[in-house]
Amino acid sequence: MNSGLIPSIGIVQSALNAERTRLDVIASNLANSQTTRDANGNVYRRKEVVFESLLPAPAGTQDAQSGLSGVHVAKIIEDPSPLPKIHMPGHPHADANGMVTFPNVNVVEEMVDMMTASRSYEANLQVLHSAKQIFTNSMRIVES
Amino acid sequence: MISPAISSILSAASGTGGAQAEAALRSNLSTPAGQSFGVPITSTPEVNLVPEAPSSSIAGITEPTSWGQMAHRMLENVNQQQVTAGEKVLDTLRGGPTPVHEAMIAVEEANLSFTVLSEMRNKVIETYQEMMRMQV
Description:
By secondary structure, chain A is an alpha+beta fold.
């Protein structure tokens, strides 16, 4: 955490990074919502992000005393929920019964996730704004 | 001192003279901040205006020093931040791995530390002028 002049800037930055990654994952889900074959020949499965606290700052630094830590995307997991099957006999990826397996991506769900991601990005930006405002206000102590 | 970094950002933003901007950035990087001053600050008399260790959060200023040394280090620090911010913005504009918010935060940090520096300078000049106005 490279927090220097502005308080909590390192934490905010880590959160912004994490939200960006979440948006990337949502973009991938939406783009592949109809993908019946991925690079490995399987049906695309919905991806999810797992957020984890960053390790605390090394001892001796200013952040170590506070015990506060930022966030990062620990891993991107696959949604294990069942894949829907649709009867499409003419489809090249149809099985012997004429059923095609589709990804377990629900577009509406992804939209809601997208709104959550963009709102939390906004919230973190607001923290940054506040921190900056506090800093600018404290500069007014020396102003004549 | 600061203008080369800023001008390089501007030229990169306009999409022309990228190589020139990089050259400007490199030349700015290779020149230590202290060398741009005609008078070396080491000749400042050792008047210790800060007896206690200042608890400033600016990196590199932890032990009690003379005011001149402190100002010098602060200048170097602020310049370094400007250069870093310029590099990050350039990297973002070139499509490098730096995310936009990181570049913007770096720019804002550089801006705020420059504000601190100029505020300190204003205060010192003000004090000096006040002393000059004293009746003897």
